[in-house]
Amino acid sequence: MEELILAEPFEPMRRRMERKLRESGRSASTLGASAEAIPLEAESVDTVVSTLVLCTVDFPDRALAEVARVLRPGGQLLFIEHVRSHSPRVARWQDRLETPWRHFGAGCRCNRDTIASIAAAGLSTEHEDVHWKGVPPIVASLVLGRAVKGQPDD
Question: pTM of the prediction?
Answer without folding.
Answer: 0.90
